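ARCHIVE CARD
Drawer: 12
Card no.: 0347
Subject: one protein chain, sequence and derived structure
Cross-reference: see card 0346
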Amino acid sequence: GNLPTAHFPFDSASINGDAADLLGALASCFVTGPLTGARLNLVGHADPRGGIAYNIVLGQQRAGSVASFLAQRGLAETRMGTLSKGAFEASGTDENGWSQDRKVEVFLAD
């Protein structure tokens, strides 16, 4: 199935609300479910309103925040990789679009 995408508030790497629920279910899937033993990559993104360096750092903080969240729920850190794309793939032009740009995507690793 599809792996969830965690979305974040403006200028934040905090996980809460729907993102926490989605990531909790993801952790269960990787710790005791059908993906036990699988590796994943976490790719952090930002909306385009900050500078390039700032958005790269924020994307990495978001990916790290998700990795920490999953590790606290039993997923070994050695099974996760993190990467930031900053705002390089951002497509939003207003708050609604920018809210979709602020995310961490989860991919199965090779």
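Annotation on reverse: The radius of gyration is 13 Å. The mean pLDDT is 95.
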